Amino acid sequence: MTQPIALVTGGNRGIGLAIAQELKTQGFLVVVSHRTGSAPAGFDSIIMDVTSTQSVEDGFIAIEEKFGTPEVIVANAGITRDGLAMRMSDEDFLDVIDTNLNGAFRVARRATRGLLKLKRGRLIFVGSVVGSVGAAGQINYSASKSGLVGMARSFAKELGTRGITSNVIAPGFVETDMTAELDEKRRTEIENAVPLARFCSAEEVAGVVAFIASDKAAYITGAVIPVDGGLGMGH
Fold first, then answer.
1. How many Cβ atoms from other residues are within 10 Å of residue 68's Cβ?
2. φ and ψ at 121, to 5 degrees?
């Protein structure tokens, strides 16, 4: 049997890189995409700008010609442009929606072409707890992550009869370069709001992604799977 192929968008750093490393450990041939920067050591990579339909198309063609059809798609690429709504520009709102939501759609739409031929596959969208509970100063980001839920569930209904699942992983506050910049007061406030009283590691998110990518999760689709220490419970 050939080695199954996984594509992780935005996989050159942070949560995306942790996901790529875990999938590689689980036996996948992992291809990471990135818009800028360099490829992480030990991984095949492609340049893909998820805000460009042509760039997404070119990236998939490159993967298919060199490796074959990716059967696990992790739509992880995303950006933030935080700010209070009254001062948020149209550009800051639309850039986040175009990358986080429209970008995930462009990738998933192109991926279905191969998945339908395989008659199997996983669409895994990296969302966020704020897609359910909201966050002051992140109206654009929260809206983009909330939109992933409706999109993933619609993909689940469209593609389920062909053995293709579609789910959202919803992390809470994760130890990344971005959260490392929080001051001690804000960090303590966040930890106090989380029932498990700590931030999540990128590896913990990656472990859940790997489970959903596995055969053990073949009967899970249309789900929002929280990895948030209980922060968003009940939503």
1. 15
2. 150, 170
At residue 225, the 3 state secondary structure works out as strand
pTM above 0.90, yes or no: yes
Angle between helices 103-118 and 139-159 (to 10 degrees): 20
Question: At residue 77, what is the residue type?
Answer: A
Instruction: Round to whole Å and give the CA distance between 175 and 140.
Output: 22
84: which 2 tokens? 């209070």
Under 8 Å between Cβ of 128 and 148 = no
Nearest-angstrom CA–CA distance, 60 and 146 = 26
> Which position among 60, 93, 141, 173 bears the catalytic label?
141
Q: Is 141 a catalytic residue?
A: yes
CA separation for the pair 33, 103 (Å, rounded)? 13
What is the distance between the alpha carbons of residues 4 and 199, in angstroms, rounded to a whole number? 32
- Per-residue tens of pLDDT for the chain, all 235 residues: 589 999 999 999 999 999 999 999 999 999 999 998 788 899 999 999 999 999 999 999 999 999 999 999 999 999 999 999 999 999 999 999 999 999 999 999 999 999 999 999 999 999 999 999 999 999 999 999 999 999 999 999 999 999 999 999 999 999 887 777 778 888 898 899 999 999 999 999 999 999 999 999 999 999 999 999 999 986 7
Strands 44-47 and 5-9: unpaired
What is the third-level CATH fold of 5-226? Rossmann fold (3.40.50)
Between the alpha carbon of residue 210 and those of residues 6, 19, 125, the distances in Å are 10, 7, 12
